[in-house]
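tool=predict chain=A
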Amino acid sequence: CGDPEAEYFGPVAALLGTLNTDNTSIPLPWGDGITETPMVGTTEYWDIYNFTADAHPIHMHLVQFEVVYRQQLETDEEGVAVQPAVLLDGTQRAPESWETGTKDTVIVYPGEMARIKATFDLAGLFVWHCHILEHEDNEMMRPYRVLPLP
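tool=predict ok
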């Protein structure tokens, strides 16, 4: 909505998504197909990249996870991660002091990748999203499906 002649002041919405094989992002709106389909009882490592200049508290429904580590991405002069994603010098940073134990939300800082370790113990359809209300209301939310055992 709004005046099509109005001046543009930045992105309308940040999106979650996946990475191409060349480490460039594929932003996906809510209605695109499900891309995360772990099997019940499995443990997966998810690398959550933040290509924006904002911190995003990423929340996963109905799963607890551990924050394994964080790693800096190459950024431009404004602190925005450049693409394709380049992890800097292999230096991994430990989780924040308040992030020990199991969590359902991790803050992914600007220009960083956060690795989490999640065990999916309940089959079903769930969501993961940014916990900033304006972001989740504007499609920074994605479904994921935990598949039952065959």
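The radius of gyration is 16 Å. The chain has one helix and ten strands.
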